[in-house]
Design brief:
The protein has helices at residues 10-32, 62-66, 81-100, 104-126, 131-144, 153-181, 185-188, 197-237, 243-270. By secondary structure, it is an all-alpha fold. The protein has two domains: 1-102, no CATH class; 107-274, no CATH class.
Amino acid sequence: MLDLELTPGPIPAVAGLFGLAIGSFLNVCSLRWPVDESVVSPPSRCPRCGEHVRWYDNIPVLSWILLRGRCRFCHEPISIQYPLVELTTGLVWAGVFAAQGPTPEALRGSVFLTILFGISLSDARFYIIPDQFSIGGAVLGLGLAFLPGGIDWKGSLIGAVVGYGVLWLVAVGGTWVMKRLFPGRLEEAGVDRAMGGGDIKMMAMVGAFVGAWGVAETVFIGSVLALLVFGPMASISKRLIPLGVFLAAAGAVTYAWGQPLLTWYLTAVVGVGR
């Protein structure tokens, strides 16, 4: 959970600069991993003319501004997604380090929120959650749990197992129910199950960072967000719901405010402790 009393100083600024660089790499990952391309080769290139981007044109945010959002060579527009992702990631790292201070938990939280952001970008555009984000993120979460502060390795491991198991059960049960309530509808939509495997593996990653209770909160909040925001749109456009986007948003909410939300729910709704 984030501390709402922010700590000013040079550490958040340095973390923010590092986050800008991470955001630049996140752009590459979220665009290449879903289509099985390497993030190492070929180097960054203009999506229009294919010309390689020089190092001085690859400075996060600043280069896009100086080039006025256009390629130096073909002068075609370059998507504003690039600087926005870099800036958002930089703000995330600066904000977490301002809230947590120069601690292992600040590193863990920044990494977790960055992975969630990458998942939302990939799923929104390609309807794919790359294994590098989900499985790789779960491994990172388990590894970072050995650092002092925050969740320990046992809670992380249990959370990963619970996250995978819960979503697997939801996927299997949801598919069974939908095939009986709406025969033929899944096939018409071009899918054979109610939930993709990427969402299941993603929740193992979430569980590795926030534990079993965090998994429950993330699934609940993400499902509500998906129904309220994308449900009406999907019923009109007939498009599938990119559940990973909403699970990612819910995971961020759980990390930042999970304990206060759980306490409020238990006391105000369930009535525990009254």
